[in-house]
Amino acid sequence: MSTEVRVPTLGESVTEATVATWFKKPGDAVAVDEMLCELETDKVTVEVPSPVAGTLGEIVAAEGETVGVDALLATVSAGGEAAAAPAKPAADAKPAAAPAASGGDAIDVMVPSLGESVTEATVSSWFKKPGDTVAQDEMLCELETDKVSVEVPSPSAGVLSEILVAEGATVEAGGKLAVLSASGAAPAAQPAAEAPASAPASGKDVEDAPSAKKLMAEKGLSSDQVQGSGRDGRVMKEDVMKAVTAASAAPAPAPAPAQTPRAPVSATDAGREERVRMTRLRQTIARRLKDAQNAAAMLTTYNEVDMTGIMELRNEYKTLFEKKHGTKLGFMSFFVKACCHALLEVPDVNAEIDGQDVVYKNYYHIGVAVGTPAGLVVPVVRDADQMSFAEIEKKIAELGKRGRDGKLSMAEMQGGTFTISNGGVYGSLMSSPILNPPQSGILGMHKIQERPMVIGGKIEIRPMMYLALSYDHRIVDGKGAVTFLVRVKEALEDPRRLLMDL
């Protein structure tokens, strides 16, 4: 019986990879989870484990070839010659039992690649339960990381035999989530598979990942200097990177002050409280916002804008706009365009501090804050200065929907140079937005409210909005911040300026 080895899920925005290295050749005996090859994408390196114990058959994708997601890489013949595989330490007891039990049809469901800087995730939901029949690529569970939700598809058709990681538990990148039975029956030898879990306590008999070995050799580290996060303590490439980073950061910063303890709560009140663990996204939001306050010299300047011109223009053309472009004409495209216009004149607001250098960015990737049930996320509209009003509206609508559905990828939330946050949709009249590091500026929009204004010596009722620009005073001077906000105000109050580049 031959089992196909296919390209695993590479991440929501990654569709292809290059075969970098084959660690085995046709005819070699392989164990379950033994690394067969290494794939390289534009973001990360992905190791492909053997789904079964047996003998490597045909290699379909040679080194250097580009392959798509789920493309066939090779075949592994299960059983037969697999029993003659070289004796391995106790950690390999599980693969040896598989051929005798079910012909090697047990297939592991592994945690997919989570992104280059993400090493763990939380299992948020299981869509199937043990004993359920599943089709290939049918979604089994959903993982939640610091940034995005990742759905895990079934690598093969069969029956879900066992769930190894329960909802709410944390799992490492590359960890095992569940076991499938391709033949439709749970493997009889499954209980024996739990034995290796305690084996590493007596000594490290697990072979480290090839990419980790290579990196340890380059960095002059030994495996006992690295804490392995893989199965049975296996050292992965990410673990080596962590050890290198920790070593380079030897002069550790002063420890953060201890968290203020909770005030005493009476027994009566304690019974009426509910304690809910923060989601990983909420923990990340909290950490980044506090980091922004600690690292930047943050200051906020305010102004107000008369929205009459935009509202009249929008009312006049919104029907034609939607008919031609298939999307509604909102306010955000005007604000994005106005900010790009102002950033061209005040480049400090579009820059960032990197050590002792200031990095000026001659591109304009505007982050648009989106409220989701899980928390605030900031997807990025890239090269917004080169986009039309219709393109901006479509992109914001698409990113907003994907954000609310939890489908944004890491790539879609990275690389922004400036952020716009619209608290007005929730009724906020005035606020001071917090920077989105490492950016140096963020614009806060607020509620449109009719107020009496003096226009040409007469009092008129006008739709007004307060604007707030928070900026890093280390790089942006007060003059530059005020100039930026005035240019945004001028462009919004007379939208024709945007068309005339004035």
UniProtKB/TrEMBL annotation:
It is an enzyme of class 2 (transferase). E2 component of the 2-oxoglutarate dehydrogenase (OGDH) complex which catalyzes the second step in the conversion of 2-oxoglutarate to succinyl-CoA and CO(2). This is Dihydrolipoyllysine-residue succinyltransferase component of 2-oxoglutarate dehydrogenase complex. Keywords: Acyltransferase, Lipoyl, Transferase, Tricarboxylic acid cycle. GO terms for cellular component: cytosol; oxoglutarate dehydrogenase complex. PANTHER family: DIHYDROLIPOYLLYSINE-RESIDUE SUCCINYLTRANSFERASE COMPONENT OF 2-OXOGLUTARATE DEHYDROGENASE COMPLEX, MITOCHONDRIAL, DIHYDROLIPOYLLYSINE-RESIDUE SUCCINYLTRANSFERASE COMPONENT OF 2-OXOGLUTARATE DEHYDROGENASE COMPLEX, MITOCHONDRIAL-RELATED. Its EC number is 2.3.1.61. Residues 191-210, 246-274 are annotated as: Disordered. Coiled coil: none annotated. It comes from Paroceanicella profunda. One of its GO terms (biological process) is L-lysine catabolic process to acetyl-CoA via saccharopine. It comes from the Bacteria. Residues 207-244 form the Peripheral subunit-binding (PSBD) domain. One of its GO terms (molecular function) is dihydrolipoyllysine-residue succinyltransferase activity. The keyword DNA repair does not apply. Forms a 24-polypeptide structural core with octahedral symmetry. Part of the 2-oxoglutarate dehydrogenase (OGDH) complex composed of E1 (2-oxoglutarate dehydrogenase), E2 (dihydrolipoamide succinyltransferase) and E3 (dihydrolipoamide dehydrogenase); the complex contains multiple copies of the three enzymatic components (E1, E2 and E3).
